[in-house]
TrEMBL record:
Keywords: NAD, Oxidoreductase, Proline metabolism. It comes from Flavobacterium nakdongensis. This is L-glutamate gamma-semialdehyde dehydrogenase. Coiled coil: none annotated. The keyword Cell division does not apply. Its EC number is 1.2.1.88. PANTHER family: DELTA-1-PYRROLINE-5-CARBOXYLATE DEHYDROGENASE 1, ISOFORM A-RELATED, DELTA-1-PYRROLINE-5-CARBOXYLATE DEHYDROGENASE 2, ISOFORM A-RELATED. It catalyses: L-glutamate 5-semialdehyde + NAD(+) + H2O = L-glutamate + NADH + 2 H(+). The keyword RNA-binding does not apply.
Length: 541
């Protein structure tokens, strides 16, 4: 039992390193990249105290060089999923009863391991597995992950400190118990930080977890597991399985001890999972917590008062960084007719300067998309746009998968504000632009709100305060993260809690106390010091 009210270290955001030529961090990450590139890593399942090699394997390769194999990972069968659930449940009592400061210490140690000895490795693994430039890897796999771990420790203590009032006759307490059962974490390919945070946040609050990473992120997931182990995470607290997502999910959701899901990924998959949970609801011991951050069709709107250079620069960053594969990436833009020539002049100047290629060459701003499925989907929409009368490709439009899954940064200009690429999430480097008449500013705000099922991020650019206020009000329900004169990407833990509504998710704001609250089930305890011995109240006399 704790013998003190312990303070945790004040969480501060991890500074982003520059990786400019000549810096030591650049040298280190390139060495780590070469080492991992030339290695052949084998990733087993991590269940309880076992590392299981099932013999049924798949290869891992880099999206920017898909023929180059960097290792293999083992696929689970149904019995391994059942074993992972049993291991999580077996580990639960000891973990849930461990004093919070010991849980905190493990995750704070993990943050320091990433900040120091593992920084180059986790960044290099992310550059290879997800084809991120060093800057994109650094802000994700190093900084955001460190921030999640440090800030969540602080948020955890804020939650524990949130206690009801008491008086001299009775003492009220709230205990923040972990959920009764186990938590299932299902993670996407696009952020190493999200992959680590979804299982870690639930585990930090005392839960044990079955974690299923994306097939396209196993290579960097392995580094996360190594770090958690080195930080002292006990066996069975986070059990890691790979394989057929439907089989794994169906097995997990059929278990009566399933207590919650922490999901990030596409909307369709989340809705399928939700409906399966609904069908199984009579079998569960408790109502499962359902937390999901899903798709987006994120917008930029420029008011006629906006600065066109700012609009163009932020549209380029917002739409094309990490090849548009951020859930928050700008994928539809609304520009006023009066400003379009100036914005276009900036695009004409800047877009041809974007260099595409391997992230190992650090002069590249842009690399490959994640896999062949994504490449083919993007090529399909680009081809459609080439043929549709209401669309025109004004930049990019080229693609080539002979070496890596490369799709050029592409801008489609449409005359139809409901054109399919204004509504559908493509999850790639394609921005669709609609030009509105200046006098239609108000209607365009309404149009944005009514186009697409999502409500994740959005940005308004304007120098006119009245217009900014008008946009913020009109778009209140159109984005869970709303930006003024900034790109709609790049949320920082502790600064901009992240999440969207409508079809974009349950808006439980990753990297905030609100999210951690979903992983506890409070118990209220009232203790009366002098207990009455007569049932009669004074008014009865
Ligand atoms: P995805 O939906 O393909 O996969 C996400 C996870 O679900 C993976 O682990 C995958 O294996 C699993 N999965 C796939 N099919 C499944 C099924 N039928 N049943 C159960 N699990 C299944 O998504 P992705 O391509 O990895 O990631 C991109 C998507 O994630 C985009 O839609 C993006 O907007 C979204 N995303 C959202 C946020 C957010 O915070 N809102 C953040 C990152 C990514």
């Amino acid at each position: 039992m704790p013998k003190g009210f312990f303070n945790v270290p004040k969480a501060i955001n991890e500074p982003v390193k520059s990786y400019a030529p000549g810096t030591p961090e650049r040298e280190k990450v390139l060495v780590a990249y070469k080492e991992l590139w030339n290695s052949s890593i084998e990733v087993p399942l991590y269940i309880g105290n076992q590392e299981i090699k099932t013999g049924n394997t798949r290869t891992m390769s880099a999206p920017h060089h898909h023929k180059h194999v960097v290792g293999t990972y083992h696929l689970a069968e149904k019995q391994h999923i059942e074993l992972a659930i049993t291991s999580a449940l077996d580990a639960r009592t000891a973990w849930a009863n461990l004093a919070w400061e010991h849980r905190a210490a493990i995750f704070l140690k993990a943050a320091e391991l990433i900040a120091g000895p593992y920084r180059a490795k986790i960044n290099a693994a992310t550059m290879i597995a997800q084809s991120k430039t060093i800057h994109q890897a650094e802000i994700d796999a190093a900084c955001e992950l460190i921030d999640f771990l440090r800030f969540n420790v602080e948020f955890m203590t804020q939650i524990y400190k949130d206690q009801p009032t008491s008086d001299s006759q009775f003492w009220n307490k709230v205990e923040y118990r972990p959920l009764e059962g186990f938590v299932y974490a299902v993670t996407p390919f696009n952020f190493t930080a999200i992959a680590a945070n979804l299982p870690a946040s639930a585990a930090m609050m005392g839960n044990t977890v079955v974690w299923k990473p994306s097939d396209s992120q196993v290579f960097s997931a392995k580094v996360i597991i190594d770090i958690f182990k080195e930080a002292g995470l006990p066996n069975g607290v986070i059990n890691v399985v790979f394989g057929d997502p439907v089989m794994i999910t169906d097995t997990v959701l059929a278990n009566p001890d399933f207590a919650g899901i922490h999901y990030t990924g596409s909307t369709f998959v989340f809705k399928e999972i939700w409906s399966k949970i609904g069908s199984n609801i009579h079998y569960y011991k408790t109502y499962p917590r359902i937390v999901g951050e899903t798709g987006g069709k994120d917008f930029i709107i420029a008011h006629p008062s906006a600065n066109p250079k700012q609009v163009a620069a932020n549209a380029i960053r917002g739409a094309f960084e990490f090849q548009g594969q951020k859930c928050s990436a700008a994928s539809r833009a609304y520009f006023p007719k009066s400003l379009w020539p100036a914005i276009k002049a900036e695009f004409d100047k800047e877009i041809p300067t974007i260099k595409m290629g391997s992230p190992e060459d650090m002069s590249n701003f842009f690399t490959a998309v994640i896999h062949e499925g994504s490449f083919d989907k993007l090529a399909y929409y680009i081809e459609q746009a080439k043929h549709d009368a209401d669309a025109e490709i004004i930049y990019g439009g080229g693609y080539d998968k002979s070496v890596g899954y490369f799709v050029e940064p592409t801008i489609i200009l449409t005359t139809n504000p409901k054109y399919k690429t204004m509504e559908t999430e493509l999850f790639g480097p394609v921005l669709t632009v609609y030009i509105y008449e200046d006098k239609d500013w108000k209607n365009t705000l309404q149009l944005i709100d009514e186009t697409s099922e999502y409500a994740l991020t959005g940005a308004v650019f304007s120098e006119d305060r009245y217009a900014i206020e008008e946009a913020a009000k009109a778009l209140e329900n159109s984005a869970g993260n709303f930006y003024i004169n900034d790109k709609p990407t790049g949320a920082v833990v502790g600064n901009q809690p992240f999440g969207g509504a409508r079809a974009s998710g349950t808006n439980d704001k990753a990297g905030s106390a609100q999210n951690l609250l979903r992983w506890v089930s409070p118990r209220t305890i009232k203790e009366t010091f002098v207990t009455p011995v007569d049932y009669r109240y004074p008014f009865l006399k």
